[in-house]
């Protein structure tokens, strides 16, 4: 039952990964899946045909979503204090991220490992790197091409939330994926 | 003689901020003068009377500041207490103030040592500090000197004077001429700063507008190593503070951080990351890179023993971060911390007896110390709802600089290795972290 739900969730993300509303899975609310979008998002391409200076480039028939669009759809993976193991609850998110990257092989991402501010600068840089690497390994095992992935640790240097409580710390202990 | 003067003038012209010493000949300290061998608890510190810092009448000289530095340096020495005896100066003392007159003042009962100084300024704007230090207990003048320097180096003159007093009684020079590198977000991003040990004259030395972390100030305080992500990858940069010239000193596949200078000048140790594992490396003085650890867990934050034979470091090979000690060539490591589930950032005292580190007490981080054998672990910063982190011993081993949030933001504080004499030294309103303390004197 649980795996069926996860599968449904993953499918939802695949669907939303093609340009649908974001946040459908993260919320965890079992609403019916939105109808699939009819066509993938295509960036507007300027017509350069009149420009003599332009080197003719064969336009790709269908371009995938832009890097910024992919970035918006990639979801953070969260971790327990002093841990870099991917939690069961985050595996659906991870699969959705993997699917998004597999469907868009032209996109590469930087996986940033982050920590909450408790603990020491150096140990947190180290822990952040482990989180980024754990995320990378998991994505590789889900078929993502190694050339699409790069890791960097920011330790405790770039929190998304600055209050001093567990809900905030939990948000900061993350692997954040940015497409480029 | 002419040659000497010419050479001195040249040096002054080149450096522009040199301190010139004109020391009156006094016998060198004899063996029995050196009697304060170690850090003393407050009750047994030797009282020093500061008679006063006087100036030529009508001249604008910063007597108050000089006096403050004198008192603070004596207090911070860990061996003296400073007593303000200015009120006892009935008449303005003159150049002839000497042992006899000090003795006549009837203060010998109250203090063991007395200091008097006068400050004057010449037509070129240079200051001369003329000082006399009298050992009241033994009834003899122990230091008499005249030092000359431009105004920018006036505090330096006073630091040198107190350094001489400390040296006379302990055989060591203390911390009066030492500096602290640290990280501050004063300009919005984390940059490396360097300041005097007493917090005076903080100066930003990087302008990377990125993330600068874990600075290591070399002995002599003229070179700093630090980690920066400005190239997109973490690298260790070596920055010459005089020339501003910078070069990449170390990089690895992943992280590069926590450089620490070898105590005898043979390069530095550093944390690097290859094949998904944090390891410790030694970059030797002639540029070879030697991997010292090889463990699938994280090994980081190395610190050398005073003799350079051992290295303490943080490792989570036991499941959570703890401090280990190994030979400086690598090999088997022995765990030396067992209390709590988070001990990291070791810093080995330059005098060898203690290792300070960041420990956790409940949910808060505190400073702990242990003997290198791991048998005497104890928390030295008090419990309370704030974090203390990143201990760094002073060059004389009598003080520990650390970062603390006890005042709200993160600031640099000093304390003694028993947790006493706590003093805040940064006040710039920003977050100040990762202090690293080094002597200005390149012995």
Describe the structure.
The complex is a heterodimer of chains A (180) and B (443). Chain A is an alpha+beta fold and 180 residues long. Chain A contains five helices and four strands. In chain A, helix 4 links the parallel strand 2 and strand 3. Chain B has two domains: 152 residues, Rossmann fold (3-Layer(aba) Sandwich), CATH 3.40.50.10070; 262 residues, Neuraminidase, CATH 2.120.10.30. At the A-B interface, helix 4 and strand 3 of A face loops of B.
Helical amount among residues of chain B, as a percent range?
Answer: 10-25%
Question: What name goes with the CATH superfamily of the largest domain in chain B?
Answer: TolB, C-terminal domain
- What's the CATH architecture of the domain at 63-179 in chain A? 2-Layer Sandwich
Unreliable runs of chain B: 1-17, 23-38, 90-96
Overall pLDDT metric of chain A: 77
Tell me the number of structural domains of chain B: 2
């Amino acid at each position: 039952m649980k795996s069926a739900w996860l599968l449904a969730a993953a499918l939802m993300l695949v669907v939303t990964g093609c340009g649908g509303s974001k946040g459908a899975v993260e919320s965890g609310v079992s609403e019916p899946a939105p109808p699939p979008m009819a066509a993938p998002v295509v960036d507007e391409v300027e017509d350069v045909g009149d420009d003599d200076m332009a080197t003719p480039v064969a336009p790709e028939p269908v371009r995938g979503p832009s890097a910024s669009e992919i970035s918006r759809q990639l979801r953070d993976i969260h971790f327990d204090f002093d841990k870099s193991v991917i939690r069961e609850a985050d595996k659906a998110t991870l699969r959705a991220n993997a699917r998004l990257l597999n469907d868009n092989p032209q996109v590469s991402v930087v996986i940033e490992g982050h920590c909450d501010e408790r603990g020491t600068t150096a140990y947190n840089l180290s822990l952040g790197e482990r989180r980024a690497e754990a995320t990378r390994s998991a994505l590789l095992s889900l078929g993502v091409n190694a050339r699409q992935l790069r890791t960097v640790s920011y330790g405790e240097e770039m929190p998304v939330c600055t209050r001093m409580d567990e809900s905030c710390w939990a948000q900061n202990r993350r692997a954040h994926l940015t497409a480029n | 003689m002419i040659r000497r003067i010419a050479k001195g003038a040249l040096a002054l012209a080149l450096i522009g901020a040199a301190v010139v010493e004109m020391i009156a000949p006094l016998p060198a300290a004899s063996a029995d003068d050196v009697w304060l061998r170690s850090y003393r608890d407050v009750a047994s510190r030797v009282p020093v009377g500061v008679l006063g810092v006087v100036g030529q009448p009508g001249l604008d000289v910063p007597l108050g500041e000089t006096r403050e530095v004198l008192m603070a340096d004596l207090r911070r020495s860990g061996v003296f207490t400073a007593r303000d005896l200015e009120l006892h100066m009935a008449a303005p003392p003159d150049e002839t103030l000497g042992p006899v007159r000090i003795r006549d003042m009837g203060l010998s009962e109250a203090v063991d040592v007395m200091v008097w100084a006068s400050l004057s300024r010449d037509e070129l704007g240079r200051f001369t500090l003329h000082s006399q230090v009298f050992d009241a207990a033994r009834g003899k003048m122990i230091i008499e000197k005249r030092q000359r320097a431009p105004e920018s180096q006036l505090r330096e003159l006073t630091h040198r004077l107190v350094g001489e007093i400390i040296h006379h009684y302990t055989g060591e020079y203390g911390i009066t001429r030492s500096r602290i590198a640290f990280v501050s977000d004063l300009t919005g991003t984390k940059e490396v700063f360097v300041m005097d040990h007493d917090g005076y004259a903080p100066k930003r030395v990087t302008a990377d507008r990125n993330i600068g972390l874990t600075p290591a100030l070399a002995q002599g305080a003229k070179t700093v190593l630090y980690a920066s992500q400005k190239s997109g990858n973490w690298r260790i940069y070596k920055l010459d503070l005089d020339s501003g010239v910078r070069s990449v000193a170390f990089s690895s596949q992943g992280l590069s951080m926590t450089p620490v200078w070898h105590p005898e000048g043979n390069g530095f140790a550093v944390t690097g990351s290859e094949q998904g594992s944090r390891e410790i490396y030694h970059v030797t003085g002639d540029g070879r890179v030697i991997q010292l650890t090889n463990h699938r867990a994280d090994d980081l934050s190395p610190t050398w023993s005073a003799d350079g034979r051992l290295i303490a470091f943080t490792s989570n090979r036991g499941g959570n971060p703890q401090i280990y000690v190994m030979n400086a060539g690598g090999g088997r490591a022995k765990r030396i911390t067992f209390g709590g589930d988070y001990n990291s950032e070791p810093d080995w005292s330059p005098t060898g007896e203690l290792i300070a580190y960041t420990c956790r007490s409940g949910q808060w981080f505190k400073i702990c110390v242990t003997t290198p054998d791991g048998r005497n672990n104890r928390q030295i910063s008090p419990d309370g709802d704030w974090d203390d982190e990143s201990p760094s011993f002073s060059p004389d081993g009598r003080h520990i600089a650390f970062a603390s949030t006890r005042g709200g933001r993160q600031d640099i504080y000093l304390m003694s290795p028993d947790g006493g004499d706590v003093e805040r030294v940064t006040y710039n309103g920003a977050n100040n972290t990762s202090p690293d303390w080094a002597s200005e004197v390149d012995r």
